């Protein structure tokens, strides 16, 4: 069951996003350390080097925002589950209360019962009140049946009381989880608004730097890096993903884009592995934890290679020390050597 207050909060956050619609958690730009340039050292002008540095910082902010959105979605899912649990616990409590009332009536009936008027329900009274041995046996048998029924009624009552208490505890716990998720969602929404503003400010700096680029600078950014190594991936799924990524060489980088014609770094891998029937997480930090960790000396085509700590960029290994990736704004999907700030690799599996 969706929470209308949280939905309004989420909608407000998404309405504030002018560049991307998917967002994530990270440090504000004011406190973030400068992000190293993702491409090899520029051979063009100083203006291109400055542009790439600013664009790389913007890419990190974009990935941070994507992570924040994923976290917000997770909190919403927690809230939905907790709300459902509250309803289920309340329903269980109502039923347990009804059972308790019913079984209490049965126990009360036995508490004041007597086999015959004025005679207690026990075998001694049955012996004294009986007129024959058979009468005693009959009375004893009846008493055993009554005792069994009384014991069953007591057990039923005890069980109903226990279930009522458990339902109360579950309802209280679910209500707390719902409130915690609601509070976390509200805080994340405020973080998202702040991060969106920081990204927008960084984008303005990138745009200003773009105006200083020469024709040669712009041509350097459109370079796709030459031929792929052509090594075979270890699985059919990995090969499909590699082929899909390589088919997008030259496609423009766009913040928040997941294809089919423009991409950000994690969007390219999400799209490529989607063609192989494997759904990756949306942001680079989560993708860097997806699948099986792989040592650097055991990399194979199709592996995901991540950069920086915390992770803010990711590419797909091709073999021979090369990868395909979407570097940053102003650039295109290209083949590059594995770069500095290497943070690890994983091998996606279905």
TrEMBL record:
Domain NlpC/P60: 235-350
InterPro entries reported in the protein's UniProt record: NLP_P60_dom (IPR000064), Papain-like_cys_pep_sf (IPR038765), PG_Endopeptidase_C40 (IPR051794)
GO biological process, one term: proteolysis
Region: Disordered, residue numbers: 210-232
Coiled coil residues, start to end: 48-92
Signal peptide: 1-32
Pfam families, per database record: NLPC_P60
Domain of life: Bacteria
Similarity comment: family membership: Belongs to the peptidase C40 family.
The protein's name in its UniProt record: Cell wall-associated hydrolase, NlpC family
Originating organism: Amycolatopsis tolypomycina
């Amino acid at each position: 069951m969706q929470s209308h207050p949280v939905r309004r909060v989420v909608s407000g956050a998404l309405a504030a996003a002018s560049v991307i619609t998917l967002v994530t958690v990270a440090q504000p730009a004011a406190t973030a350390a400068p992000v190293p340039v993702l491409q090899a050292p520029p051979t063009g002008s100083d203006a291109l080097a400055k542009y790439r540095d600013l664009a790389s910082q913007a890419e990190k902010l974009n990935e941070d925002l994507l992570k924040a959105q994923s976290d917000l979605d997770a909190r919403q899912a927690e809230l939905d589950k907790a709300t459902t649990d509250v309803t289920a616990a309340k329903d269980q409590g109502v039923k347990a209360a009804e059972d308790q009332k019913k079984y209490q009536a049965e126990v009360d009936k036995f508490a004041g019962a007597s086999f015959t008027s004025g005679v207690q329900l026990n075998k001694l009274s049955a012996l004294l009140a009986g007129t024959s041995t058979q009468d005693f046996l009959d009375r004893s048998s009846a008493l055993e049946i009554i005792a069994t029924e009384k014991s069953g009624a007591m057990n039923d009552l005890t069980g109903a009381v226990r279930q009522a208490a458990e339902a109360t505890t579950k309802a209280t716990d679910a209500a707390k989880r719902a409130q915690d998720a609601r509070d976390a969602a509200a805080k994340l929404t405020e973080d998202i608004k702040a991060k969106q503003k920081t990204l927008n400010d960084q984008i303005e700096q990138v745009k200003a730097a773009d105006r200083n680029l020469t024709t040669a600078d712009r041509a350097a950014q459109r370079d796709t890096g030459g031929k792929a190594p052509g090594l075979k991936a270890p699985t059919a799924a990995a090969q499909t993903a590699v082929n899909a990524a390589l088919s997008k060489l030259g496609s423009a980088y766009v913040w928040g884009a997941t294809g089919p014609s423009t991409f950000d770094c994690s969007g390219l891998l999400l799209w490529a592995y989607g063609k192989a029937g494997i759904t990756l997480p949306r942001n680079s930090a989560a993708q860097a934890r997806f699948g099986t960790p792989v040592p650097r000396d055991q990399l194979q085509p199709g592996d995901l290679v991540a950069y920086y700590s915390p992770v803010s960029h990711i590419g797909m290994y091709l073999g021979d020390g090369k990868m395909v990736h979407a570097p940053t704004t102003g650039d295109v999907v290209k083949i590059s050597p594995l770069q500095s700030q290497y943070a690890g690799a994983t091998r996606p599996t279905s």
